[in-house]
Amino acid sequence: MRILLVGKNGQVGWELQRALAPLGELLALGREETGDLATTDRLVARIRELAPQVIVNAAAYTAVDKAETEVEQAQRLNAELPAVLAREAAALDAWLVHYSTDYVFDGSGTQPWTEEAPTGPLSAYGRGKLAGEKAILASGVRALIFRTSWVYASRGHNFVRTVLRLAQERETLDIVADQVGAPTGADLLADVTALALHQVLQADAAGAALSGIYHLVAAGETSWHSIARFVLSEAERAGMQLRVSADKLGAIPSEAYPTPAPRPRNSRLVTSKLEQAFNVRMPPWQSGIQRMLHEILAK
Ligand SMILES: NC(=O)C1=CN([C@@H]2O[C@H](COP(=O)(O)OP(=O)(O)OC[C@H]3O[C@@H](n4cnc5c(N)ncnc54)[C@H](OP(=O)(O)O)[C@@H]3O)[C@@H](O)[C@H]2O)C=CC1
Ligand SMILES: Cc1cn([C@H]2C[C@H](O)[C@@H](COP(=O)(O)OP(=O)(O)O[C@H]3O[C@@H](C)C(=O)[C@@H](O)[C@H]3O)O2)c(=O)[nH]c1=O
Ligand SMILES: [Mg+2]
């Protein structure tokens, strides 16, 4: 089994290097090897040369606000790259594993979104990611598309690390409390990806029936404000010196924190399709955050 991982140095890519290694011969590529993936010639040549049975795409344009002005670059990474990977994987009769986002939804209502629920992205990032999903589905390739949300890891750019830094630097800190969803660890994402991939590969031809979109997020729901409060109280308990303590953290509505890209209010995702298809259970979001904090605070 030969697996080609693209985007090996991102939050998810890094964890995939660990989680996919036992499944076969893992070839992991980062920007050093592929160059800027706005142009895919080099990557395509590598894919054709290596002829993997699985391509895993962890590369994406994830700067949500910047995507509003760098629309072209974001579109290339989030829509065109997946289309090219789908075409190449289909030609090799390989599986494609890809990640998408809660930001494909408009965030209306309070009901959790199923995989079939109507999409309606509010941002250029969300529109690009949705176009990526659609290109993969239209190609006919066998694919696992995992829609996840609010990804964090002990390395890389993420909300948890930003909050810890701001609470050390600032006198006050206000965080939006009316956007609801679930923070999901890159480690959990990578581990569930490996479990699911193992099952579709073991199933041989029958595995094709498992091809499709799956929501993959930690269990429970919370707001960005509640996550931040949880993070700060855990950090304080561990003896970290903060200028903004957990009980001083401000809770604000989205209107009080204007950003170039609007974020969905309702990012709740139903995970039962994934849990039933692959016989897994999503752990509560708190456990992953606690574990990540232990890792960070030990340093
Ligand atoms: N982060 C999140 O909160 C969420 C992420 N997702 C999705 O999960 C997937 C993984 O995200 P995550 O690991 O957090 O993302 P990161 O931003 O941590 O990593 C993205 C990776 O893509 C690479 N990359 C970006 N632009 C280029 C480029 N022009 N050329 C070459 N490589 C490039 C980066 O390389 P380099 O390090 O060299 O820049 C990096 O390794 C993505 O599909 C994302 O849309 C879904 C929901 C939430
Ligand atoms: C830093 C900060 C953020 N916020 C708000 C803004 C936003 O609504 C929320 C989270 O901010 P961020 O900019 O970290 O989040 P954002 O970059 O929008 O995170 C998203 O990234 C992409 C890649 C995804 O796919 C999504 O699932 C989601 O994880 O917190 C505050 O209210 N106060 C603050 O001081
Ligand atoms: Mg961000």
Automatic annotation (TrEMBL):
CDD domains: dTDP_HR_like_SDR_e (cd05254). Its EC number is 1.1.1.133. GO terms for molecular function: dTDP-4-dehydrorhamnose reductase activity. Pfam families: RmlD_sub_bind. GO terms for biological process: dTDP-rhamnose biosynthetic process; O antigen biosynthetic process. Residues 1-296 form the RmlD-like substrate binding domain. The keyword NADP applies. InterPro entries: dTDP_dehydrorham_reduct, NAD(P)-bd_dom_sf, RmlD-like-bd. It is an enzyme of class 1 (oxidoreductase). Pathway: Carbohydrate biosynthesis; dTDP-L-rhamnose biosynthesis. Keywords: NADP, Oxidoreductase. Gene3D superfamilies: NAD(P)-binding Rossmann-like Domain, UDP-galactose 4-epimerase, domain 1. Binds 1 Mg(2+) ion per monomer. It catalyses: dTDP-beta-L-rhamnose + NADP(+) = dTDP-4-dehydro-beta-L-rhamnose + NADPH + H(+). Its cofactor is Mg(2+). GO terms for cellular component: cytosol. NCBIfam families: PRK09987.1, rmlD. Catalyzes the reduction of dTDP-6-deoxy-L-lyxo-4-hexulose to yield dTDP-L-rhamnose. Belongs to the dTDP-4-dehydrorhamnose reductase family. This is dTDP-4-dehydrorhamnose reductase. It comes from Azomonas macrocytogenes (Azotobacter macrocytogenes).
